[in-house]
Predict the 3D structure of the following.
Amino acid sequence: CWLCDYRDTRCVCWGNESCQYCSWGWPVEDGIWMKDWDVPLDLTAQAAAQAAQKPLLRELLKMARAGEELPLALPAEGMARVLDVAILTGDREAAVHISKKCQVWPLRRWRGRDFVDTKFCARILLAALWAGADFQSIHVPHFDFTLRETIAIPLQAHIFLCRSEDWQDYAEFFKPAAGAEWRPTSTDNEMVGCFSGLAKWPLLSVDRIQGAPKAGIDIRKVRGAWGLRDTLHCSGSLLGLAILYGQQDCAVACARLGLQQSGFELNRDANSVLRDYLHSEASSDHPLLDDDLVRILKPSASECRSAAVAAGQTALRASWQREAAQNGVAVFQVMRKMLRSFPLALVGDILTFSMEVPEFVEKLDLWKFGDGWMTLVPPNSDSHLEKVHGINEPNDPRAREHETGTGSASAAAAPDSAPEALDVNGKSTDELMEALRASRDQVPVLNMDGVCVFRLTSMATSCHVNELLLDATGPLAALHARVLNAGCEVNPEWNVMKALFVPVTEAQMA
């Protein structure tokens, strides 16, 4: 595994601050430094194993392993030392029991390179994690032969990629921060091998693909040339290879995680060859996979086509839901200004025309395999809009209460007057749809500032509504980010509205 070929890096720890390749295990202010704190892990583990054989420590560790109370009232420094020995000997049960009695924690230098040796450090690492050590920020150095430089891989990503069979033992201890996913920097990184099923090589593993985000890995940059013909001189993404292998479950999992490229960026002809193969009716030899791999996998054109279509439908549904979350309310309000009555499904149709189309759907020309746009978006678009935004049909009496006032979801000046209402029937509907298609890329101006005040009605005090509006990581994350990036707040102390989804200062609201 190229990930396990590392070059030693110079430690740049300074004072109480550790560098990205090191960690103290616990906060410095809550711990006490061990006498051998800077000794390499292999040497200090040998010393701990010898210390654990001494009669007193051996009995203490035995009692802690059995969950018994320790007979001695050890000082805080002594208890920390006993915990340190339990961790370095990989005695997880004893480490967990002793950690409950500790008032201070054993501090030492944990180096990322020490964790490359999977056989040696696995028990020690797990014992430290179970005792409460935090290795969230530590990185493992690796030498990338493509870039000819050392790269830093987060410890949790290294464990996931190099110890696939052990990842579940570590998963609960690592919670990657949103937006801080690790991604390979080289285009030809050959990391696809880390996502294969050990028992069904070279097929991809859907569990590995779905588990990557939990390890803080952005799989959109994972590449590999597994089984591709040498004459192509290109590598494929996980989505592209899942389609080539005819693995529908893996292709759908990739689409759910946001992969939008079929993956043959280094050879444009490869996309054309794959598109022609998917659209071919007669069974033929696979034009992209190596003959040896074809004999192992035996993927047919129909299996590859099913994988591509399923991934395309999944990606389109996800794109429609993102569009509904971001622009559903705005479209509904514009329609209310233009029309006296209209079916709520019309809002879903408009969002269908304005949503982003995944790149691989266009490149592989997957449209001919569907019956139309609306078969690829959620069939219950009305229910989705009502659930996410609380939008009701216009003929609902509650929906008529749309005047501006307290409880609004976005702060701005309301339009002075609404356009004349129109009836939705016959020819006028066709003309409206044509106008919407022609201007779908144009943002409607609701007032001079381009924003509007929305009023919440019977659900204004609902806890669900409050959580939805104020959740910075939920469906309205893009609106929150727009406000926060401008240096403003969604719900400041001086706010008289429910939430502000445009950058507004206190002076502007006064």
In short: Residues 1-6, 395-428, 439-448 have pLDDT under 50 and may be disordered.
